[in-house]
Amino acid sequence: MHKSLDSIQLIDIPKISDPDGRGNLSVIEKKILPYEIKRVYYLYDVPSDSSRGGHAHIELQQFLIALSGSFDVVLDNGLERKVYTLNRPNKGLLIPNGIWRELDNFSAGAVCLSLVSDVYKESDYLRDYNDFKSYTKTTD
């Protein structure tokens, strides 16, 4: 099934600013994500000419946040591609299952936080783009 790229959401994370100028605090709780977080990991020290991701998930949903710096998220449903630049720690990108993702163009010091809906399961990954395209056609 070719999921619409319109199903991807850029979500504002509540930000609490300290009135004394001591910085900001952002909180992810309650109904911000449509799933219970079962795994948390982060990417850092990624060279600017490297990319991460390069896969899709059959079931898993993912929420990405640029805690520091910036990076691009290239999303693909098998028919079209869309690029999101993440560069604010109070905005996150909710990626549903069935969407191919690649992360690239990392700035120096970029940190990407990933909050996902399930524990690691290799069987949930589509790691070859041609396999992903075949999968999207068979589930239409």
From TrEMBL:
Q: What is this protein called?
A: FdtA/QdtA family cupin domain-containing protein
Question: Which CDD domains did the record assign?
Answer: cupin_QdtA-like (cd20292)
Q: Where does the record place the Sugar 3,4-ketoisomerase QdtA cupin domain? A: 8-136
Q: Which residues form a coiled coil?
A: none
